[in-house]
Amino acid sequence: MLKLCGFHLSNYHNKVRLALLEKGVAFEEDAGCRPSQKDEWLARSPLGKVPILEIDGAGLAESQVICEYLEDAFPEPPLYPREPLARARVRELIAMLELHLELVARRLYPEAFFGGKVSDETRQQVERDLAKGVRGFTRLARFAPYLAGAELTLADCAAFVHLPLVSLATKAVFGRDALEAIAPVRPYLKMLGERPAFARVNADRKAAQAALAARAKS
CA neighbours within 13 Å on the CB side: how many for 147? Predict the structure, then answer.
């Protein structure tokens, strides 16, 4: 039995959840888990992060590793193409999204989402590095109609949870959307959001966000 542990505001948790739902894999979910450096959590997740996937009681960490496991263990329906180079292209897109867009923009999150402040030096570094990431992503993304071509892949699961955060964070801190020059992004995300699994994950994320806002006001 599979059990996914994390929370609905985590984009990496939601990436794994999308893969599970699109594959139709039965799983339990504990959406009350948070990152922690406590010993009991570190025993389940080596870096204390979420998500983790428990497989018959054994924990597996890192969202991309979890998704690769799911593809190996539950190959149908596939979230990677069959041909090796095409599979590598999907992994290339995921690396671009996560290493050169989301993780770069994440340095803005303290100011964009949590009431903190980032230094001018950080702003400049993020702006420079994001410009490179956006250029690279533009060269790789096909939008035909999915990111890697005609079929939905794991790259689309990653894009759906990461790209909106890049847009929101850069608009909040820089006053402009770093992705605004990529015209297909908005209709592409709208198309994904109409798929049942994506709509479900998005609705749960919005509900979790509303609950968090309500607690903050109380």
Answer: 29
